[in-house]
Amino acid sequence: MTADTLTTTGRPGARTPGRFRRSLAARQRGELWGFLTPAIVFFVVFFLFPLGYGVYMSTTNFTTGTFITGRAPFVGTANFEAILSEPITFRALANTVTITVVSVVVELVLGLLLALLFAKRFPGSRWLPTLILLPWLLPAVVVATVWKSLLAGDGPINDVLGAIGLPVEAWLANPATALPAVIVVAVWASLPYWATILGAALKQVPAEQLEAAQLDGAGAWRRLVSIVIPTIWPVISVLVVMSVVYTLLIVDLVLVLTAGGPANSTVTLGLLSYRQAFQQFQFGLGGAYGMLLLGISILFAIVYTVMSMRQERDE
Amino acid sequence: MASTAQRLRRVALPAVGLTAALALTACAGGQAAPAQTDGFDGVSLTVWNNIDFEPYQGLQKQYFESCAADLGITVDVQTQSGDYTTKLLQAAGAKALPDVALLSTDTQLPQLASQGVLADLSQYDVTTDGLADSAADLGRYDGTLYGLPVQVEDYAIFYNKAAFAAAGVSETAPKTFDDLVKLAASLTTADQKGIVLPGIGGDGSTPVYFLPFLLSAGGDPADPTGTGAVEAVDLYKKLVDNGSLSPEFVNWGWESIDQWTSQKAALTVSGPWNLVDTSIPFEWGTFPFPTATSGESPKVNLLGYAYGAAANADAKKEAAAAALIKCRASEENQIDTAVQGGYIPALKSAQAAFVEKVPAAAPFVDAVDGAYNSAQLGTEWNTLQQQYVDAIQGATVGGQTAQAALEQAGGK
Amino acid sequence: MTATLPAASATVTAEPAVAPIAERRRRRGWTWTIVTVVVLAVYLFPVYWMISASLQPSANSADTAWFPVSPGLGGFEQALDDAGIGGLRVSILVSLGSVLVTLLVAVPAAYALSRLRSRAVSIALILLLLAQMIPSVVLATSFYAMFNSWGLLNTFIGLILANATAGVPFAVIVMRAFMLRLDPEVIEAATVDGLGPIGTLWRIVVPLSRNAIVTAGVFAFLFSWGDLLFGLTLVNRNEMYPMSVLILALANSNLNTWAATMAASLIASVPALAVILAAQRHVKAGLSAGAGR
Q: Which of A139, B95, B139, C262 is a Cys-bridge partner for C226, taking CB atoms 3.0 to 4.6 Å apart?
């Protein structure tokens, strides 16, 4: 292509013998590969190596001593067997999946609602919606610390709930309510991102199509389901994938909010990985939890890819 | 106001633990042959500590400089901020340890001693006379005296006098766990809980304040399913069940003291720093810990701050360092530090004088004799800590029995 | 309002019918404004709480009031005193450095991946997704081991490189999506004009992709700014801790630092807010373009 364009421009001085044509394209491809070099180096050093290191850690008896002696006796699957024989691992697995699924679903629904609200034209609709991004900008440490205070037994949330007659609870101290509370906080911090991206996507929906449907007598719900959602579906899919991966990996939010408690009711695989590695100095086990988490992400990615390929085939 | 250095000690554990382990590759320092030297003229020593806030920082300088003048040597007192443990270990590895260093007896002293970079102080005129055995032991590693403890830290129960008056309860110390449960219940009102204790995992506060209860019940911290542990966990359970300890304690760590200072709880546990906190807006007092059954004496965990000398090929320098330490550990210095900084003196005579000045320090001082050296547990403590937190949470908000909670937690 | 005369023409009588509809639309518009304001007020209450608490220097974590009755700046003083300024400086330098590294690595890569036609591109995209899936604890431990051998612990470079790992994959994906839409003729023209590869990239592609680059940069900044894990594990010296670690220390302190914790949190939020406000226009455009992929 490239070479063809050159030969047909007829620019002065552009001589194009066959050999030159091939080497130009090859040279350009070489240049592009050159551009990839920093990224490749970065990837190998800062992603591939840690990944390998993680596998190494999870299959050896890796302790703080290993950092010195470099020796870590290979133990095969012993670390995995160890963590899989603990009930707490399954608790963490259940929690991790629950938090992720519920968060993403809620973020999708509420995000869409907010985006639809912000898509309307009303006084202030150009700048008011930007304010919603504030929670998303806060570091996880800040979000968790503030919410810990809000959710306290005598905190403002309970003040309001009590005033309107709803049940009051020490949300983060009760094993039954702690996990939902964590989900609420996680959603609060991520929802703004969904609302903003979906808001931008909504602008892509052709207005004429919506008006035509309205004239045809289609109600708001019908318009939403048949026109809006299919149009922004690619954006929704990307958001879902990114959000699932991101939520699966959350560590700092849960760490600061509950440290896995009360009574280990909010432990997640990420949290257990941190606990084993940096509080118990059992890096082998920490690595095993990490690999388990990675496995789940990969599993999700595979399922997702298969499903979307099947959907494309059906269309 | 204490420094960020002190606060960060609690949080930055991960990196500290890792670097500490890494620095253990350092080679041992040179061992000096014990030699008698008299007259230290011309000797110049460096002293490290990590207390970087006033007035304590200024006091340290004063003590060392006046001791140096007495001995005819010069000193350079340097205050290290940041990760002191790492600095010490790296210095040890680079054979550049200061001549004299302040060491915490539960972490820094054992680590340096195990590398062989500290001098054996008993070769010099440094004795542990006047110290209780438990305090003296803090400075020992493998039987050898590597550090002379000057201040120690243990714990006691603090109470709000006004709360007692309001409830019409007399200010007598609870003798048994059951007494404590009853006392806490009688002090609980609509706006005030009887007691507040930390219960969160991960920041180290919960196990530290739990240990005195476990020890006073005759338990062994290394044995999480023993009777002592069960009774201590059961105590927490009873306190939550009867409403005197808020179930929210599982979310609170070191900052749980805030509940006590804002009078939302009548009783709490704290360390000696609380003795000199002038911001507490009410009259308070202290109690010793109760025991599980009557007639026993309470037991607490103890850690200390000791001065150690670097092992030095130059025997004169080493001797001078030891002499400097001995002078620094004098009674007046210890009393001074205690009154200003809220650290319990190591010397028994200094302790008595301290109690005369600050009567509330009595339970702290009484508990030093026979106290448990937390350094004994070594790295086991990391795993045990999480187990105890899990058990406490499981038995209280998790609804399990103390025995079941401990057994389940023992699994991981 | 103009009065209509009895003898007015049809056009004049049409006016009164139009005016009320416009008014109804305007009133309905204000309803949505009120709805939005209420939604935002409720949603942003925690932010208000943080600000209010930071102005109550005498409160502690147990008794923060809804409203600062006697506001004071004591919390801010304490936050900035106790190594707060140092932490802010570390966070700003590390985040900016991280943006720089991210863009240096990702811009050429995104361009290349948008121009190359080979199966390697699909593999690269899968690898990028995989990179984002690696749990942070695994990354942190590996970096600890690596940086320790290379002497990069407690350094700006170390933190910058570690934090860049959060920004690079996302940056490449977003910028590539944008660059796919660049007109190939413009780029070919540049090549023919004699601009080398770097020249083409710098003079033509970058200016055209400004929105996507700013978006990627903003995200890289925010990822780095909010990091807690790398700050906790790759640093053990007071003066090198970023803001998030200091906030954690303040929150867990056994001294009354509640107002200071909230003040530090507020201080820590300001640069992030400033960055996104400044880049708002670009980010909106960047996201709209990226959203269409």
A: A139
